[in-house]
Write a structure and sequence with these properties.
By secondary structure, the protein is an all-alpha fold. It contains 33 helices and no strands.
Length: 716
């Protein structure tokens, strides 16, 4: 199942080039057993059984059957016959779906060599092989090679009088998918409409081809935010399938499950969570009725429910279903390492979204272990995982490790492909983000421009990825205090979002948040308030009123109101942020600890010291109880509480908290020396006021020592 991601993080970008691309056709799956070894089947029968298993997502069984078919056709015709090439392509298509690129390429090259020897150059089978080459290169984001092979496939199939409707429609569908991946929406529609014209007229004779084409059309509409059109196609498809008499009930019901999964996904993008959940539950209901709740089909389908809950920030429910899926995958008689790796990635991304970084890291490592059993130590998927690890480390302020993982991914991709590969461009953007977090703005700018240069080889300026690079340039200028340039980049990004329906409109919420920050830095808080209100509106439209994406937006809004001296509104918004965080991720989550600190700081700055102490103590208790002492926020809370005690004349308590803050920062972020320096400055000022000049001198010596270390780090 594809991993669904958003444009607000790296994983969305990486998803473009990984095998997690949403496929044009549903893959449909089964629980049938392999044929008994002493039963004799023809190679055609074995191929048909392999095809059935593949459509039922039983890919390991499909591979074994296809390998048996290959041996059978070899025994009958030899390994230089056109029929042998047909089975080679069938097996290659299964390998390709599992990102086994080396094996896929070997089989496709062998098949094409046999066909070139035995068939005329314009034979439809040669066209089919070129189509599979196109898909093979497309899934690796090797766009120029993909285009070459699709051109050959189209040329042969469109001119042939012998090509079947299904075969030509399939070529159009795959080419439409390729164009959609490049965000060429008009071209994608042109070819999917050609496919639709072929399959609709023969839908009663060939219902499967019709269903696949309609789902391919849904994908285009969905990705282009044409949700009503997508819903209309799916609704018509459900009516058609209700009157459809299947020759294989299991394949039919799994196809029907796929339609409801698409329906759920479209409603999810629309922000209609009730209908999304209803459609997802319908898919699960069909699977439960026709398959076992210990089947691989059940495991994959319940991920749809998990996605619905995750989008609504219902962390516990999402976790429950993903863990249930993991259990089922692990309980299979032969564990599919690819499925296992996929579910660990899904869990890792979910935990990362809710700041559970240790759990995220654990599942990423388990995904590595599973994928290495399939792919070895160098593969596109492993580069993707290194990017995930890099992102998780950066979220925990482990910047050296984050940079190291990112560079490993870039080096791996350069070795596998070239230094112009699309995914290297995405990794360069990840590297830029790491540099920005460390205030290394010059290096960040260089990395962003390098990324943009790579991406512009394949994408137009109005594409999602180019927009993402503009947003990062804006963040870099904001960090440098170049506010006009920052605002210009953010407005350019916003313009791209408004003109490119493929970019989730929820991304606009984060851009409005950026614009609010620029206006705040410029002291224009009235303008900042207008922007932050728009940020909240776009986010609610996309994710609902309880989304965890609103936590920071409401905190920023509250800060703006505080600066405008609208204190009652500020208090209300800080509490709203806290309420959403506890509701969506729980009180013991790091995100909630941040909102508690915001509330405490607000009360401290408004002279309500009693409330401030209450919230600081609440945050510290949660941190200690949940063993979250490695979070940097622990040091921040101790420092803030220390300054509050000092304002109240409780100097001993202030001194104690300043010292605890230093130790907390050393434990959480030993490489981030600025935080320790800041604490020592508070200590030195306290000692000066108490006329403890020797202690003040020692504190300043520590500041000098740490600043010297910082200079050394910068020179490195």
């Amino acid at each position: 199942m594809p991993l669904l991601t958003t444009l607000t993080g790296l994983s969305m970008s990486l998803n473009f080039v990984s095998r997690y691309f949403v496929v044009l056709v549903c893959t449909f799956v089964s629980i049938s057993s392999l044929p008994a070894e002493d039963t004799q089947y023809t190679w055609q029968e074995l191929s048909d059984q392999s095809d059935r298993q593949f459509y039922l997502d039983e890919e390991l069984k499909a591979i074994k059957l296809s390998e048996q078919a290959l041996q059978a056709v070899k025994d009958e015709f030899g390994d230089d016959h056109s029929n042998y090439a047909i089975v080679l392509i069938d097996l290659a298509s299964i390998y390709e779906s599992r990102a086994l690129f080396d094996r896929t390429e070997q089989l496709l090259n062998r098949a094409l060599a046999i066909q070139t020897k035995n068939l005329p150059p314009d034979h439809i089978d040669i066209g089919t092989t070129h189509r599979w080459f196109g898909e093979f290169y497309n899934d690796q984001a090797l766009t120029k090679l993909a285009q070459e092979h699709f051109d050959k496939a189209l040329q042969i199939h469109e001119k042939s009088r012998e090509v079947s409707v299904d075969e030509l429609a399939k070529t159009y569908r795959y080419y439409a998918k390729y164009q959609m991946n490049l965000e060429n929406v008009d071209k994608a529609k042109e070819y999917i409409y050609k496919a639709q014209e072929l399959t609709v007229s023969l839908k009663d004779e060939d219902p499967v081809s019709h269903i696949k084409t309609q789902l391919a059309l849904v994908r285009i509409y969905k990705n282009n935010s044409e949700y009503e059109a997508a819903i209309k196609v799916l609704s018509e498809l459900l009516v058609f399938m209700d009157n459809y008499q299947p020759d294989d009930s299991l394949k039919f019901y799994y196809r029907l499950t796929g339609v409801y999964e698409w329906l759920s996904s479209v409603y999810l993008d629309m922000g209609d969570f009730d209908k999304a959940e209803k459609a997802a539950n319908k898919a699960v209901e069909i699977v439960e009725k026709n398959f076992s709740d210990e089947s691989i089909q059940y495991a994959l389908t319940i991920e749809t429910i998990a996605e619905v809950y995750d989008k609504q920030s219902k962390f516990q429910q999402a976790e429950e279903y993903l863990q249930k899926s993991l259990h089922v995958i692990n309980s299979q008689s032969e564990v599919d390492m690819m499925r296992l790796g996929d579910i660990h990635i899904a869990l890792s991304e979910m935990y990362s979204d809710y700041d559970e970084y240790q759990l995220a890291d654990e599942h990423t490592q388990k995904a590595f272990k599973a994928f290495r059993k399939i792919y070895g130590y160098e593969h596109l998927t492993l580069a993707y995982l290194l990017g995930e690890l890099s992102s998780t480390c950066a979220s925990q302020l482990q910047y050296k490790a984050a940079e190291s993982h990112c560079m490993q991914a870039i080096n791996m991709l350069t070795g596998l492909y070239s230094n112009e590969h699309i995914m290297i461009g995405m990794m360069k953007m990840q590297l830029a983000r790491i540099y920005l977090k460390q205030q290394r703005s010059s290096e960040a700018e260089q990395a962003i421009l390098q990324a943009r240069k790579i991406l512009q080889n394949d994408f137009k300026d109005q594409s999602a990825l180019i927009a993402f690079s503009s947003r990062m340039l804006g963040e870099m200028y904001l960090q440098r205090g170049m506010y006009d340039k920052a605002k210009s980049e953010f407005l350019q990004t916003l313009n791209t979002i408004n003109n490119n329906k493929m970019i989730p409109q929820t991304f606009a919420g984060s851009i409005y948040q950026n614009l609010a920050e620029v206006s705040s830095e410029q002291g224009n808080f009235k303008q900042a308030k207008l922007y932050i209100i728009k940020a909240a509106k776009r986010t609610i439209e996309g994710y609902g009123p309880d989304s965890n994406y609103l936590i920071n937006i409401y905190s920023d809004h509250a800060y703006i109101c505080y600066k405008l001296e609208q204190l009652k509104e500020a208090e209300k918004l800080f509490k709203k942020s806290f309420e959403i965080s506890t509701k969506s991720v729980g009180e013991n989550n790091p995100a909630s600890i941040f909102t508690i600190n915001d509330l405490a700081l607000f009360y401290q700055n408004t002279q309500d010291f009693e409330s401030a102490i209450q919230y600081y103590d609440q945050a510290i208790e949660i941190i200690n109880t949940m063993d979250q002492t490695r979070l940097p926020i622990h040091g921040t809370i101790l420092l803030n509480k220390g300054s509050l005690h000092e304002r109240q004349g409780e100097d001993k308590k202030a001194e104690s908290h300043y010292k605890q803050a230093i130790q907390a920062y050393i434990k959480a972020t030993p490489d981030k020396l600025e935080s320790q320096i800041y604490c020592y400055k508070f200590l030195a000022a306290l000692y000066d006021r108490l006329e403890r000049y020797h202690d003040a001198s020692n504190a300043r010596k520590e500041i000098v020592r740490l600043e010297f270390r910082m200079e050394g780090v910068k020179k490195q």
